[in-house]
Design a protein that fits this description.
Layout: E1 13-19, E2 22-28, H1 30-37, H2 44-56, H3 81-87, H4 94-98, H5 100-111, H6 126-146, H7 150-169
Antiparallel strand pairs: 1-2
Helix pairs in contact: 2-3, 6-7
Length: 170
């Protein structure tokens, strides 16, 4: 991908902003990222992940004491979660298991979920988009039944059946 600013170099810094369901993406080379965000050029691609993690995990701020789980270390490589927050790098594959709770929290904050659903090319996968929409409606239906809002649940159930019948007929 080419840099959004200079339009000549390879983009190594990718930023996605989602605000009110509007997605804005910007792709920058290290030099343009440095100009735009003030990061040292040679560190621009690496510097953002630790900053993002530190912002998502405020308990690891410089002026705050580390929580108990931050002192836990990977038995294989000796990496601590605080090391990950500072560098943006895990020491080995075992770190994913050791720090799964914290990593899941970060993924949930960044992506809104810990389950990868992938991207959908809108023209090619309309059925997949509808399937995901139906799955989401079914989750809402379960919640309405759980809180005993049966009239709303019945309307949602009918909406789901209508969509499913349209799909099976088409």
């Amino acid at each position: 991908m080419i840099c959004f600013e200079c339009k000549s170099k390879l983009a190594t810094v990718h930023i996605k902003k989602i605000l009110n369901n509007n997605v804005t993406e910007i792709h920058l080379c290290a030099e343009c990222a440095n100009k735009k965000f003030g990061a040292p050029e040679e560190l621009a691609p690496q510097i953002f992940l630790p900053n993002i993690i530190a912002n998502l995990m405020p308990a690891f701020g410089a002026n705050q004491s580390e929580p108990q789980h931050a002192r836990e270390k990977c038995a294989v490589c000796g990496c601590s979660f605080a090391d990950f927050v500072n560098t943006g790098l895990l020491g080995c594959s075992n770190c994913y298991k050791v720090f799964s709770r914290e990593l899941n929290e970060i993924m949930r904050k960044i992506h809104g979920s810990t389950q990868h659903k992938g991207k959908i090319i809108s023209r090619s996968f309309d059925n997949l988009k509808e399937k995901r929409s139906i799955e989401e409606l079914k989750k809402q239906l379960e919640e309405l039944v759980r809180v005993e809002k049966y009239e709303e649940a019945a309307k949602l159930r009918d909406k789901i059946k209508k969509i499913e019948n349209k799909n099976s007929a088409g």
